[in-house]
């Protein structure tokens, strides 16, 4: 395989993984907000604080994953 095809495949896999991740995060944030409203009687502002605490590591993980993926994809392209 040429290097271009390998990079395109890796980009497609990465894009699908990101779409799946963001869809999951969106569903979970909506669920968590309503769950806290009805189960623990948390205010909207309190729920947003918990949501921020949940999303901060998600953002950090996404940034770390992107940088490590770029390093891996460049090393994989060398072997192709």
Compact description:
With 80 residues, the protein is an all-alpha fold.
Poorly predicted runs of 5 or more residues: none
Number of strands: 0
* Secondary-structure element string: HH
- Cα-atom Rg, whole angstroms? 18 Å
What is the molecular shape? Answer: elongated
N-C termini distance: 7 Å
Helix segment count?
2
What oligomeric arrangement do these chains adopt?
single chain
Averaged pLDDT, please?
82
How much of the residues is beta strand, in percent? under 5%
Main structural class: mainly alpha
Q: Describe it for me?
A:
There is one protein chain. With 80 residues, the protein is an all-alpha fold. Helices cover 92% and strands 0% of the residues. It contains two helices and no strands. Helix 1 (3-40) packs antiparallel against helix 2 (44-79). The radius of gyration is 18 Å and the shape is elongated. It starts with a helix and ends with a helix. The model has no long low-confidence stretch (mean pLDDT 82).
Give the key terms.
single chain, 80 residues, mainly alpha, 2 helices, 92% helix, elongated
What's the structural blueprint in terms of helices and strands?
Layout: H1 3-40, H2 44-79
Helix pairs in contact: 1-2
């Amino acid at each position: 395989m040429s290097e271009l095809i390998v990079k395109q495949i890796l980009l497609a896999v990465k894009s699908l993984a990101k779409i799946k991740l963001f869809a999951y995060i969106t569903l979970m944030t909506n669920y968590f907000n309503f769950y806290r409203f009805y189960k623990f009687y948390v205010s909207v502002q309190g729920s947003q604080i918990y949501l921020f605490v949940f999303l901060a590591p998600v953002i950090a993980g996404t940034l770390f994953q992107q940088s490590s993926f770029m390093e891996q994809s460049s090393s994989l392209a060398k072997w192709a």
